[in-house]
């Protein structure tokens, strides 16, 4: 049943994260949209009360020594951080269990706030699917990715998307592709973004990068099957001798990169601290977004960061990449990257004025205003 509209004012926003906790986000540099939204919601004084909710985790994790605790979400009592627990481990992927877990969380959150004056926002599709629309002022699903890609969860998330539509949940997504996949009546696209201040003081590049010499085609991000590895193999084979293809990021699916790693002009490195990654972007000759077509639902942070760093970009021609900048060259899936990489390296780089304009247009302060308007109507 869909809730009857109410005129009670919104005083509270609850944001329930999906799949990754606040601590998880801080450990990888707080660069992605959930934590950017959470931080701005925390600092938004037009919201009387804000509650950040971690995904449900196992009680057993408390029995093991952990890494040092990250900084707290807030010290202001009107800004809270809940860390719900259950005894079982792992993210449930079977529907009955997942629904039970998220319904318990929904009831707990209803007891914690006055739901009649609260908008519940969640990035967990199952919570969005089962949250009681008759109780909450409104329910919104913030889809910062297409969560059908979560391991072993495609069927569960597909079911949740259908429930989101049936229950008239408000959908705010990072791409039009996700909006279209879900098909909700109420929907808004708010793409990914950057923080302009991150680029104002450039760190030194790592010593190994400085020692490369020659020209560099650079990729930063998780090393997984979302990358068009065949396109990168062709690129490595096609590049002139003075070029090195560099990939930096956590290796999540090493079996995908075995052949690429054998190329003499390919260097694959583990994740580096975020300031050093931004510095490498800024000095690379060309930065790359070689994604497979199945990633069209993504709003890749890296393309915004590359352009925010002033680098020329060559990317697979997918809808989220289009119209961002004249310094972002698009290549059809299946076409070879090398001609555009060489043309991008030979062409003029973005001017300081162009880079500053791009940063301002895509800064998270501006993105958050669009997100808040979509969630709260103001």
Automatic annotation (TrEMBL):
SUPFAM superfamilies on file: UDP-Glycosyltransferase/glycogen phosphorylase (SSF53756)
Q: Where is the composition biased (Basic and acidic residues)?
A: 77-95
Its recorded name reads: Glycosyl transferase
Where do the record's region annotations for Disordered lie? 62-95
Keyword vocabulary terms for this entry: Glycosyltransferase, Transferase
Keyword Transferase in the entry? The reply is yes
Q: GO MF terms on file? A: glycosyltransferase activity
Keyword Transferase assigned: yes
Which Pfam families does the entry link to?
Glyco_trans_1_4
Task: Give the source species.
Answer: Nocardioides currus
């Amino acid at each position: 049943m869909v809730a009857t509209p109410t005129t009670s004012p919104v005083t509270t926003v609850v944001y329930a994260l999906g799949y990754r906790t606040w601590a998880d986000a801080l450990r990888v540099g707080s660069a992605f949209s959930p934590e950017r939204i959470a931080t701005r919601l925390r600092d938004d004084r037009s919201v009387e009360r804000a509650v950040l909710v971690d995904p449900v985790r196992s009680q057993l994790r408390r029995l093991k020594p952990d890494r040092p605790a990250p900084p707290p979400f807030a010290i202001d009592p009107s800004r809270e951080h809940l860390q719900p627990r259950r005894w079982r481990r792992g993210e449930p992927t079977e529907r009955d269990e997942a629904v039970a877990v998220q319904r318990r969380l929904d009831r707990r959150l209803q007891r914690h706030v006055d739901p009649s004056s609260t908008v519940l926002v969640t990035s967990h599709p199952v919570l969005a699917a089962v949250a009681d629309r008759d109780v909450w002022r409104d329910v919104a699903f913030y889809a910062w990715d297409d969560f059908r890609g979560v391991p072993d969860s495609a069927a569960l998330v597909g079911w949740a998307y259908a429930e989101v539509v049936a229950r008239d949940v408000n959908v705010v997504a990072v791409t039009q592709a996700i909006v279209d996949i879900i098909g909700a009546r109420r929907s808004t696209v708010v793409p990914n973004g950057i923080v302009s201040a991150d680029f104002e003081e450039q760190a030194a590049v790592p010593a190994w990068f400085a020692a490369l010499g020659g020209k560099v085609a650079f990729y930063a991000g998780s090393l997984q099957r979302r990358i068009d590895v065949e396109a990168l193999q062709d690129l490595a084979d096609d590049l002139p001798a003075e070029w090195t293809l560099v990939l930096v990021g956590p290796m999540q699916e090493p079996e995908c990169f075995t052949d690429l790693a054998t190329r003499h002009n390919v260097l694959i490195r583990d994740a580096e601290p975020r300031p050093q990654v931004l510095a490498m972007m800024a000095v690379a000759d060309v930065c790359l977004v070689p994604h497979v077509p199945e990633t069209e639902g993504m709003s890749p942070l890296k393309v915004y960061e590359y352009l925010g760093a002033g680098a020329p970009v060559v990317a697979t021609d997918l809808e989220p990449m289009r119209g961002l900048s004249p310094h972002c060259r698009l290549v059809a899936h299946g076409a070879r990257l090398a001609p555009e990489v060489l043309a991008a390296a030979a062409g003029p780089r973005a001017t300081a004025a162009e880079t500053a304009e791009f940063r301002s247009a895509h800064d998270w302060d501006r993105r958050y205003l669009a997100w808040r308007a979509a969630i709260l109507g103001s």
